[in-house]
Design a protein that fits this description.
Layout (H helix, E strand, L loop, with lengths): L2 E4 H13 L5 E4 L2 E3 L2 H12 L4 E5 L1 E2 L3 H8 L4 E5 L7 E3 L3 E5 L3 E2 H5 L4 E6 L6 H16 L2 E2 L4 H8 L1 H7 L4 E3 L6 E3 L8 H7 L9 E3 L6 E6 L7 H11 L2
Parallel strand pairs: 2-4, 3-5, 3-9, 4-6
Antiparallel strand pairs: 1-10, 2-7, 6-11, 7-8, 8-10, 12-13, 14-15
C-alpha cells in the first residue's frame, strides 16, 4: 500500500532511489538546484553506468555545475516548458511529492509525498498509470542544449556521429553501455534476469544500437529499432 512521506522521509527515500544503481532512474522536477552531496550521488551513478534522466523546467544551477552535469555520459537532461509535476522513480519504486529537486525545498519547506512500490499488488496499477504519464512527459520534452544529447540536436547529425562510438552498444533492458553485439544485447545481470523466462519477443526498453528509449519496440529477437536498422547494417555489416 502507498506510504505517506513527510519532508525528511521524502528526502531520505529520494536519496535511496538515487543510490540504487541497479535500475534506471527518472527525476521529474520543475526546478533543479543540487547540493554537493546530490551531485556526488549523480556522479556515482554515472561511474557505475547507471542511466539517469532529469526532466525539468528551469535549472537553478551555475553554468559550471550545469556543464559538468550535462557532460556525464549516463545522464540525460531534458526540459519541458510547462512542467509542474514532481515525480521520482526507478523500476521498483516511485515518489510523487510536492518537493522539487531544489536544496531550499529539502532544507526549509514543509513538503509531503507518497511512496509507491511496484511489487505491492495494491500499488501496481497506480505505479503503471503514473509511469505512463512520466513517459508522456519525457516524449513531449526536449533535449537540454547544455547536455551531450542537446549538443547533438543543436549542432545536427554530424555532432551526433561524433558522440556515438563504434563498437558501443546498449543493454536493451537497462540502457547501460555494453559491447555492440546483436546476439548479446543484454548486460550480464540483465541477461540473467531475462533468461529466467527466455522469451525472445518480450518487449524491452532501449535500442541496442542507439541507446534511445524504444517504448517496447525492441526485444531479444529485435534489439535494434526499425528506424536504426539500416544504419546499423551499414556500419556493422549485419
Amino acid at each position: 500500500m502507498a506510504r505517506f512521506l513527510d519532508t525528511r522521509k521524502c528526502a531520505a527515500e529520494l536519496s535511496d532511489l538515487i543510490k540504487d544503481t541497479g535500475s534506471d532512474l527518472t527525476l521529474v522536477s520543475p526546478y533543479l538546484q543540487f547540493s554537493k552531496d546530490f551531485k556526488e550521488l549523480l556522479s556515482y551513478r554515472n561511474s557505475k553506468g547507471a542511466r539517469t534522466t532529469l526532466i525539468f523546467r528551469e535549472p537553478k544551477l551555475n553554468s559550471d555545475d550545469l556543464s559538468q552535469l550535462g557532460a556525464l555520459r549516463s545522464i540525460t537532461l531534458r526540459f519541458h516548458e510547462d512542467l509542474h509535476a514532481k515525480c521520482y522513480l526507478n523500476g521498483a519504486k516511485m515518489i510523487i511529492t510536492s518537493m522539487n529537486l531544489y536544496q531550499f525545498s529539502m532544507d526549509h519547506n514543509k513538503e509531503m509525498g507518497v511512496l509507491i512500490a511496484k511489487s505491492d499488488a495494491s500499488d501496481r496499477q497506480l505505479y503503471e498509470d503514473a509511469y505512463k504519464e512520466v513517459q508522456y512527459i519525457y516524449e513531449t520534452s526536449k533535449p537540454f542544449p547544455g547536455s551531450v544529447q542537446g549538443e547533438a540536436v543543436r549542432q545536427g547529425a554530424g555532432a551526433a556521429r561524433n558522440i556515438w562510438k563504434k563498437g558501443t552498444g546498449y543493454c536493451i533492458r537497462t540502457g547501460i553501455e555494453i559491447p555492440f553485439d546483436v546476439d548479446k544485447p543484454f548486460s550480464a545481470e540483465a541477461f540473467r534476469k531475462w533468461n529466467e523466462y527466455g522469451d525472445p519477443e518480450y518487449p524491452e526498453k532501449y535500442c541496442h544500437f542507439s541507446g534511445e528509449l524504444s517504448n517496447g519496440e525492441t526485444s531479444f529477437d529485435k534489439p535494434i529499432l526499425k528506424k536504426n536498422w539500416k544504419k546499423a547494417q551499414e556500419i556493422y555489416g549485419i
